[in-house]
Amino acid sequence: MRIIHDLEIKNMLKMAADAFDRAYAPYSNYRVGACLKGSTGAYYLGGNIENSSYGATICAERVALSKAVYEGEKEFDALAIFTDDKSPTPCGICRQSLTEFCDPEMPIICGSKDGSYKVYSLGELFPSPFLLKSDKETIEHSEEVKEDTYE
Fold it and tell me: What is the pLDDT of residues 111-127, one digit of tens each?
């Protein structure tokens, strides 16, 4: 896992706490705030946004990630999340979404309103993500498969 300094952890948790205050969670009352730090040094905040059609709900981490990618950021240094829960971690969909842009060594800071936090690497939380190969790799693989088939 990449090293992240205590001052940066506290700074990111403070921003994630601010995002937590803006979350919209009238159905579960489980608010989450996220702060995603881009490799450019920019910070992107997000709060979960629930919908009465639960499938339309979007997690705080993916709100922050979507904002960042929309703004042109494609590489990230760290993520902080903040909730009322004493042991929060990103959900599976968020972990999968993060693997699209973040390396497995990226630190994920999981903080709680009680002041406690734990730092994980993305790879620690999600060791076996689903990853599609590039178009070129897919074409090469399909040609290899054709050669190995019986006709």
Answer: 999 999 999 999 999 99
